[in-house]
Amino acid sequence: VQCKQKQSLLPALFLFITFSSAFPADRKVENEEDMQQAQAYLNQFYSPGIEGSHLVQSENRSLFEGKIQAMQAFFGLTVSGKLDSSTLEIMKMPRCGVPDVGQYGYTLPGWKEHRLTYRIVNYTPDMPRADVDEAIQNALEVWSKVTPLVFTKISKGIADIMIAFRTGGNVCGTTFFLGDSRSKYPLSQDDINGIQSIYGSPPKPPAKPKGTPKPHTCDPDLTMDAITTFRREIMFFKGRHLWRLYHDIASVELELIASFWPSLPAGLQAAYESPKDKILVFKGKHFWAIRGYAVLPDYPKSIHTLGFPRRVKKIDAAVCDRSTRKTYFFVGIWCWRYDEMAQAMDRGYPQRTVKHFPGIGLRVDAVFQHKGFFYFFHGSKQFEYDVQAKNITRVMRANTWFQCEEPLNSSFNFAIKENAHSGGVGIFHHQNLNMFTFSIVHILKTMCN
Q1: Are 321 and 292 in contact (CB under 8 A)?
Q2: 2-199 topology per CATH
Q3: What is the pLDDT of the chain when averaged over all its residues?
Q4: Which of 129, 141, 179, 348 has the smallest set of CB atoms within 10 Å of its CB?
């Protein structure tokens, strides 16, 4: 990693991956020259305190071994406290001059700004680009959680942190092993104390917004903000929360959105699962892409990058038809169709929703696909829609997926009326029609018996 300005106490962030031949077999190194080099290295990067060259026979031996162990642990080597060949090889690598373990104080260098940029100049051929992006983002988030630092990825220009993969040469950086740093390499309290001595603690989280209480799962008037599938799950978004429903498990889990994706806003307005194993979520003029538990870099983006005209200010609902790989976006009583393969809007759109989906003329709050059916949500009700037959097959309460209540019988309780003025469809209760329908069914049953 080449550094734009003074280096700071962020050893895990200065990424430099060196691919070299395997180290030779370990051997004990006790010659005077190696000892002197090791002593100078440890005094520079692990604070001074070792004096004299005859370390084996001096009282400094225990201090020397302790610093060797700290260094070996930092670089992922076998922690032995011995100056073996692998440890010496690391000591001979070019360094930025930043201590691996700093003495906490305000004299250490640091960035003056808390909003920092980083750029990946090139990628290693040994890992997929998406994995590298995610690993680096995860590593930076480890530090963001304990400091006021905010890291933003840029694609061009000079960044505060320039990340490059090299096969050798004098590059300013420290070794970093890509992986899920959040779980495998949690920060120790020493690390937290050190970085906070320079940048301070993270800002206090904003007070919980008023008027967004925890939703009641079986509230008969429950409405949904957005719904999407993701692999074997269905996710229902409401305010700051989401329900997670697994296809093969009856129970449903209510979670905070922030517990999975801290950077996402509350009150998402649309969501769908793309064929590329990603979730796209929308709020206002922006959308985010999610893969697993990570919000992908370079997001949020404007919805207008998808091809929407400037007059479109938000998306009400979205769903991708798995069989055609076409995504439908619903805005008011209109729908757009997006080709996921061509990455462009289809011609001939927008169309009135009721024209493409006869029977669905109301504004769509949320929609998702399950077992070939589309489920359209409006208010506290949902409409099971047969895409092939192009008709509504059932009307249910919005929370019937949570095993709260039996579905309402659409044949008896609802009728669909075309609104001649708006071209929409109105769902209304008609008591006389219910009684008439019930009478016909009763007569037919009597005749069959």
Answers
A1: no
A2: Collagenase (Catalytic Domain) (3.40.390)
A3: 74
A4: 348
Which of 20, 8, 17 is CA-nearest to residue 171?
A: 17
Asked whether residue 96 is marked as a ligand-binding residue, the answer is: yes
**Neighbour tally for 78: CB within 10 Å:** 11
Topology adopted by domain 226-438? Hemopexin (2.110.10)
Q: Which CB contacts under 8 angstroms, 24+ apart, belong to 274-280? A: 274/320, 274/327, 274/340, 275/320, 275/322, 275/325, 275/340, 276/340, 277/231, 279/228, 279/230, 279/235, 280/318
DSSP code for 15: B
For residue 274, report the phi and psi dihedrals to the nearest 5 degrees: -90, 160
pLDDT at 423 over 70: no
Positive or negative torsion for Cα 428, 432, 435, 439: negative
Residue 227 annotated in ligand binding: yes
More confident residue, 282 or 174: 282
Q: Is 170 known to sit in a ligand binding site? A: yes
Q: How do the domains of the chain map onto residue ranges?
A: 2-199, 226-438
Determine whether the annotation assigns residue 160 to a binding site: yes
Rounded to the nearest angstrom, the gap between the alpha carbon of residue 289 and the centroid of all alpha carbons in its chain is 7
On the 0-12 / 13-18 / 19+ scale of CB atoms within 10 A, 23 is middle
| Residue 365 marked ligand-binding | yes
Q: Is 318 annotated as a binding residue?
A: yes
Residue 277's pLDDT band, with cuts at 50, 70 and 90, is confident
C-alpha distances in angstroms, 148 versus 114, 188, 376?
6, 18, 42
Distance from the first to the final alpha carbon of the chain: 83
